[in-house]
Amino acid sequence: SQQGEEDPQALSIQEGENATMNCSYKTSINNLQWYRQNSGRGLVHLILIRSNEREKHSGRLRVTLDTSKKSSSLLITASRAADTASYFCATGGGSARQLTFGSGTQLTVLP
Amino acid sequence: DTGVSQDPRHKITKRGQNVTFRCDPISEHNRLYWYRQTLGQGPEFLTYFQNEAQLEKSRLLSDRFSAERPKGSFSTLEIQRTEQGDSAMYLCASVEGGGPYEQYFGPGTRLTVT
Asked: Does A90 lie at the interface with B, CB-CB under 8 angstroms?
């Protein structure tokens, strides 16, 4: 079953604009990760934020985590056409430390 | 390229046939995961190996599915008597060490059951 929900399901923006995606989850977590998936390919890890962190940056990416609201957001600044992909949040936990993914946001960046 | 490879990349099979997929993780990674992803959804956990031991299986993994990781290196996932509902992308991921670290995913095997 899916742990969380991403919002919006689809987002279309112009190159150079910022893109914000939100993720909500249901249970307590150890960490939350964001992954990118280009069409028909495997997933690529973007960033991990631990449950005791509130914000993290990596290049053009900014992730926030609000454990009281069980939500996270991913901001991509100055978007490029190459950022076109599906973005998934995933929570880590469980005895196998497996990832539980949301249903993803499909981002389209128009040149 | 994450360093994790999967073979084949695509497999078309007829209902009732058996199929086997292979995953080669990053060599120093002792943890290996299999996930299944259907169209428009995020991946769902199937099973987990630590070295050669299969330590956890999801209830999604029916008894038609079996996975192995001999010698703690590559892993195989076999589906017996395939059904149309098995059509999906099967993803493998590997992780180094024991912490909640990032998972390195392979490119996936897309299975189509006709």
From this structure: yes
Contacts of B42 in chain A (CB under 8 A): 2, 88, 90, 101-104
Picking from B44, B91, B101, the nearest residue to A42 by CB comes out as B91
- Smallest CA–CA distance from B2 into chain A, residue: A44
Furthest-apart CA atoms within chain B: distance in Å: 40
Give the phi and the psi of residue A71 in degrees, each rounded to 5.
Answer: -145, 155
Give the tens place of pLDDT for each residue, B27-83. Answer: 889 999 999 999 989 999 999 999 999 999 998 889 999 999 998 899 999 999 999
Dist CA A17 CA A43 (whole Å):
24
**Would you say how long chain B is, in residues?**
114
Classify residue A69 by its DSSP letter. T
The residue of B5, B6, B35, B102 whose CB has the most chain A CBs within 10 angstroms, and thus the best one to mutate to test that interface, is B102
What are the beta bridge partners of residue A110? A14
CB-based contact B48 A41, cutoff 8 Å = no
Cβ atoms < 10 Å from Cβ of A25: 22
Cβ within 8 Å, pair B42-A98: no
pLDDT in tens, A36-86: 999 878 899 999 999 999 999 999 999 999 999 999 999 999 999 999 999
**Distance, CA of B30 to CA of B3 (rounded, Å):** 14
- Show the tokens assigned to B35: 């996930």
- DSSP, res B87: -
CB-based contact, A24 to chain B, within 8 Å: no
